[in-house]
Write a structure and sequence with these properties.
The longest helix has 16 residues. The chain is built from 4 helices and no strands. By secondary structure, it is an all-alpha fold. The radius of gyration is 21 Å and the shape is elongated. The model has no long low-confidence stretch (mean pLDDT 89).
Length: 78
């Protein structure tokens, strides 16, 4: 394992944001993943209830479901 050295670079917040924006997309996603590791997935109760309501609706009426390709087309038109 290579030796590591801690370096302190004082940055303003906006400088840090600019550095993050300059990262390749894959590295930005890695950073997001690291930052979200410690955050609990607190989903509000109202949102859980809404999802449950929609699941019941689509279980009763599966003809209302849209396949993935069609859904992506609809989203991309927005």
């Amino acid at each position: 394992m290579p030796a590591t050295t801690n370096i302190y670079l004082p940055l303003q917040f906006n400088q840090l944001v600019d550095l993050i924006k300059a990262l390749p997309k894959k590295e930005k996603q890695q950073l997001i993943d690291v930052l979200q590791e410690d955050e609990p997935a607190d989903i509000p109760e109202w949102q859980k209830q809404e999802v449950r309501k929609r699941i019941k609706k689509y279980n009763k009426h599966p003809e209302l479901l849209v396949d993935e390709k069609q859904a992506l087309k609809m989203i991309n038109k927005m």
